[in-house]
Recover the amino acids of this structure.
């Protein structure tokens, strides 16, 4: 059973978010995110956290460490500062990124 | 102007502070503190163990803690709530389970007393 959680644009979460399903961030999240299936940071989203997920799609602002088991994609609106760890990483033209990249070979 | 509504899905657990101005529906678990300028709905699968400070609260699931609402707190038939509820209007539907204290106060400012 897959659920989608939406942190609305006016919502601020300060703490730990964990679980399964898809997390869509339109607001602000500070702390730690550990969500099994996917984390999607929308344009209005701002994440200052350690993120651990399967698939990350970043169109907003992310500061911290993002660890994805499948892939990370930064779209043209994405801005990230921190470390990326994933077997597949896509950074679109226009995206801004600064930090370490670790594409470890994991089947 | 109300912000975008949010949904904390069933498989999600939040430990910490949650604040904002939009409506929020909780189907998962939240521990800590929730501060909303609008309507908070704790769905039947939701469990909130926190200090709750909202405009309006509707509970269909579980809640424990200090609850303060500026307009109304409504416990539906499936609600199981424990704690202190402070609001001008508190409604318990037939079937709702509650243990704690209820203060139905209209917030009268100190100056007027």
């Amino acid at each position: 059973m897959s659920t989608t959680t939406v942190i609305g644009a006016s919502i601020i979460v300060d703490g730990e978010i964990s679980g399964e399903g898809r997390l869509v961030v339109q607001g602000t999240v500070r702390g730690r995110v550990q969500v099994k299936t996917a984390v999607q940071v929308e344009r209005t989203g701002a994440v200052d956290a350690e993120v651990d997920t399967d698939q990350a799609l970043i169109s907003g602002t992310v500061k911290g460490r993002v660890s994805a088991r499948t892939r990370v994609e930064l779209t043209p609106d994405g801005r990230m500062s921190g470390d990326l760890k994933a077997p597949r990483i896509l950074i679109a033209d226009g995206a801004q990124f600064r930090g370490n990249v670790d594409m470890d070979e994991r089947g | 102007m109300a912000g975008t509504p949010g949904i904390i899905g069933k498989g999600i657990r939040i430990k910490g502070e949650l604040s904002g101005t939009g409506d929020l529906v909780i189907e998962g678990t939240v521990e800590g503190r929730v501060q909303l300028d609008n309507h908070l709905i704790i769905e039947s699968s939701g469990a909130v163990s926190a200090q709750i400070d909202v405009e309006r609260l509707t509970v269909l699931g579980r809640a424990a803690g200090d609850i303060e609402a500026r307009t109304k707190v409504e416990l539906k038939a499936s609600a199981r709530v424990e704690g202190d509820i402070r609001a001008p209007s508190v409604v318990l539907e037939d079937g709702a389970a509650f243990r704690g204290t209820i203060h139905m106060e209209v917030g009268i400012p100190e100056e007027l007393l």
Q: What stands out?
A: Chain B touches chain A at residues 2-22, 24, 27-28, 32 (CB under 8 Å). The CA atoms of residues 84 and 101 of chain B lie 5 Å apart. Chain B has no helices and ten strands. The mean pLDDT of chain B is 90.
